[in-house]
Amino acid sequence: MERAIFDQMAATDQTHWWYTARRRVLSAVIARKVRVPKGARILEIGCGTGHNVPMLRQFGVVDAVELDDDARAIASARLGMDVIGASLPGLEGVPKDRYDLVALLDVIEHVGQDVAGLASARDRLKPNGQLLITVPAHQWMWSSHDRLNHHFRRYSKSSLRTLIESAGLRVDHLGYFNSLLFPLAIVGRLVGKLTGKEDMDKVPAAPVNRLFDRLFGAEAYLVGRVPMPPGLSLIAIASTT
């Protein structure tokens, strides 16, 4: 991604509704749907500025990987740990058969060889380990936001399922999230395309930010319990077959 994207992420990942509510949703899904043993070893691939690691530490000991030098430096400093510099699909220096949970949170869409990348992540799992995957949904929502973030694609439920199975994994759960705000997102995306202003990453005014945080965060009680209607993102849990 562009350096400016990482700078903006570091400046907003503790306050922007998308980050704050998303972490609560992901934490609830892990607690509800993932087999996390006591003392679990967890790997986050593509940790960016490290904002998900404290949430993942609720469930075990976390290692993190980030390719970008600047983002890795930010993450290492804020987390007090050495973040590994490696890329997919190689993951050089990341041991195989080590982790109970591997998280790829809005990462695989950045990888040209997504099947090989996911298969490499699979190889880092212990027997009976699981992958937690989130990706942006709906190719028809493609915009300048995707181009600036160096995405190769957005996913449908069927294409994500095909990816997971092609990487030699079993789908344990697959569904949408960030669904409650999806109608507003469609309107915002259309307006952005018409006006040429598609800055989704800027923190909105405080009342709007709190409202969106509460609406998106309410999905922590729903995702993994009930089928969600179409949303901005897809979430999947996969395990070795």
Q: Could you explain the architecture of this structure?
A:
The protein is an alpha/beta fold and 241 residues long. It has one domain: Rossmann fold (3-Layer(aba) Sandwich), CATH 3.40.50.150. Helix content is 39%, strand content 20%. It has 9 helices and 6 strands. The protein has helices at residues 3-12, 17-33, 53-56, 69-79, 114-123, 144-148, 157-166, 182-195, 206-217, and strands at 40-45, 60-65, 99-105, 125-136, 169-177, 233-240. β3, α5 (114-123) and β4 form a beta-alpha-beta unit. The two termini are 33 Å apart.
Instruction: Give the ordered list of helices and strands.
Output: HHEHEHEHEHHEHHE
Rg, nearest Å: 17 Å
The low-confidence runs, each spanning 5 or more residues with pLDDT under 50, are none
What is the domain total for the residues? 1
Classification by helices and strands = alpha/beta
Q: What is the subunit organization of this protein?
A: single chain
CATH architecture: 3-Layer(aba) Sandwich
Mean pLDDT: 93
Give the biggest sheet: 6 strands, mixed
Q: How large a portion of the residues is in β-strands, by DSSP E?
A: 15-25%
In CATH terms, the superfamily is Vaccinia Virus protein VP39
Number of separate helices: 9
Apparent shape: globular
Strand order of the largest sheet: 2-1-3-4-6-5
CATH topology: Rossmann fold
CATH class: Alpha Beta
Range of helix content: 25-40%
Strand segment count = 6
**Ends apart, CA distance between termini:** 33 Å
